[in-house]
Structure formats: structure tokens, C-alpha cells
Design goal:
globular, single chain, alpha+beta, five-stranded antiparallel sheet, 2 helices, Alpha-Beta Plaits
């Protein structure tokens, strides 16, 4: 299984959940800054990251977006995060 590049970004309202979200994302990250990280993920890692973040976040107030940097994949958003609506732009890895 080949790894693919994603951007993982979050907005967490509660400091203890924020610290936990940071630990979860950093455990998958290869680089990044503040609340956005570059993650090379295979399909199993992608599912694990999403499951761990879903267990960490309050999905009524927090948000998490996992953006695949390919033109043919949808954005995955958790909580109050919204997927991009501008279809005129796409990312290339």
C-alpha cells in the first residue's frame, strides 16, 4: 500500500482536547505548523487517524479536516468542519 500526502487540520475549543488532538495528529505527521500538518498515510493509517480524532473531538463544537492532496479524492471533515465548496480549485501532490 502506497502512502499518500494529506493535510490534517483541526480547530478544537477545549484545551485538554486540543492537547490530545495535537498528540494524535503529530503521531502521524511528517511536518507542519500550528493546527495544520502534512501526513503521509496509507489507507490503514488514514482510517486510524480518523478514528482516533473522532474519539478525541467533541463533534458538536470541534472540527477536523483531512485533505488528500490529489485531484480525485473527496475531503473528509469531522465535527463542525465543512468540506470546501469551491470546485474550481484542486490540489496536486
Amino acid at each position: 500500500m502506497a502512502n499518500k500526502l494529506y493535510i490534517a487540520a483541526y480547530d478544537v475549543r477545549h484545551p485538554p482536547r486540543l492537547a490530545q488532538a495535537l498528540r494524535v495528529v503529530r503521531s502521524f505527521a511528517s511536518g507542519g505548523q500550528k493546527s495544520a500538518y502534512e501526513c503521509w498515510l496509507d489507507p490503514l493509517d488514514e482510517r486510524e487517524l480518523l478514528n482516533r480524532m473522532a474519539a478525541t473531538l467533541d463533534l458538536d463544537t470541534d472540527s477536523f479536516a483531512l485533505v488528500p492532496l490529489t485531484a480525485n479524492r473527496p475531503v473528509t471533515a469531522l465535527g463542525i468542519a465543512r468540506a470546501p465548496v469551491d470546485v474550481d480549485y484542486f490540489y496536486l501532490a
